[in-house]
Design brief:
By secondary structure, this protein is α/β, with parallel strands linked by helices. Helices cover 35% and strands 16% of the residues. Strand 9, helix 10 and strand 10 form a beta-alpha-beta unit. The two termini are 29 Å apart. The relative contact order is 0.09.
Length: 352
């Protein structure tokens, strides 16, 4: 969604005429809930494979099924109803997955599933979906989901394969060690959500250890050290302020500007900075609007204090100026300030 500063109000951004609504990605706990899969072919098999391990009561309704589904039914992992679907098969279902490949059957199942109070996932038929199922990459307790809101299942699969190749299997052990450390801190009454402590003391050195091919014992030792030193003050290293000039013009950003945005924890932006520029920052980065040349009331002193306060926590702070970068008083000791000039104008372009 574009911010209001990009020229649209929140109401305009939320209107159907402005852009299609995006899906809201959740992780649904299906343990003990009934999930009905209508269809017995490869598409149904793929859906059932994703449901295994969730604790759901899986029911497959189809006159015939592929060999894998028949094996799972024989093993007690699901119930196979070997006949054409009827309304009674949809009762008590929390979710109905339609994988028949037949337009008329899909429409009938979706209609009666809704009457039974179930949500519907229709394979390759986003118009009839209440929910779409993302392509996922699992690494231990961590699940990375990729969804196109049903627009291109092939694209979601391709991105999943790309991410799977980029995420080493050891990432699962890293997340498991982090979860264990958090549990120990909670038992000791010492836990607090201090992202920079976790990032600097555990995750960054853990990723470096994984990249270097060091064993899981290193991850366990890093988790032990995190717990032992968790009460020490944070940050372990000073923050950084990057002042990006000319982010509101119609030229591409300088390469350095895109680099600091990609690493930003906090982004303070002036009016005129387009949403396409803000989107270069991580999704989790805090975005704060400011008036041109200053803080919320246009005061440069207030702006400087805002930037220094965030950098003082160890954050990487980026200020996006629509024109020249503001002048700041010297920050706290150790906080680095970098001025990022705008990209040079192409040859022959008029000066701005």
């Amino acid at each position: 969604m574009e911010p209001a500063s990009a020229g649209r109000t929140l109401n305009e951004a939320a209107s159907p005429e402005a852009e299609p609504h995006r899906g809201y990605v959740v992780s649904w706990r299906l343990a003990g809930r009934r999930v009905v899969v209508v269809g017995g072919g490869p598409a149904a098999e793929a859906k059932v494979t994703g449901l295994l391990g969730t604790g759901a009561e899986i029911v497959v309704v189809a006159p015939e099924v592929v060999a894998r589904l028949e094996e799972l039914a024989a093993a007690g992992a699901l119930t196979w109803v070997a006949r054409r679907v009827r309304r009674r098969h949809l009762r008590r279902a929390a979710l109905v997955v339609v994988a028949t490949g037949t337009e008329r059957t899909n429409a009938w199942v979706c209609r009666h599933a809704h009457r039974a109070g179930a949500l519907v996932n229709a394979v390759d038929d986003p118009r009839r979906c209440d929910v779409t199922v993302p392509a996922v990459v699992r690494r231990g307790p961590a699940t990375v989901a990729v969804t196109t809101d049903g627009q291109s299942p092939a694209a979601a699969r391709f991105l999943r394969e790309h991410l799977s190749a980029a995420l080493p299997a050891e990432m699962g052990e890293m997340v498991a060690q982090a979860a264990s450390a958090r549990a120990r801190l909670r038992r000791q009454g010492r836990y607090r959500y201090d992202y920079y402590a976790w990032k600097q003391r555990f995750f960054e050195p853990a990723v470096e250890a994984i990249a270097a091919g060091r064993g899981p014992g290193v991850l366990e030792e890093l988790a032990r050290r995190l717990v032992a030193g968790f009460d020490a003050p944070t940050p372990l290293r000073p923050g950084r302020i990057s002042l990006v000039a000319g982010a509101g013009n119609d030229r591409p950003l300088a390469r350095r500007a895109t680099e600091v945005l990609a690493e930003a924890d906090v982004v303070v932006y002036e009016p005129g900075v387009p949403a396409t520029v803000l989107d270069l920052a991580p999704v989790a980065a805090v975005r704060l609007p400011a008036r041109a040349g200053g803080g919320t009331d246009g005061d440069a002193t207030e702006l400087g204090q805002t930037l220094r306060d965030h950098a003082g926590t160890g954050a990487a702070v980026v200020h996006l100026a629509s024109g020249p970068a503001p002048a700041l008083d010297p920050p706290a000791t150790g906080v680095r300030v970098e001025l990022v000039p705008p990209a040079p104008a192409p040859a022959g372009a008029p000066a701005r």
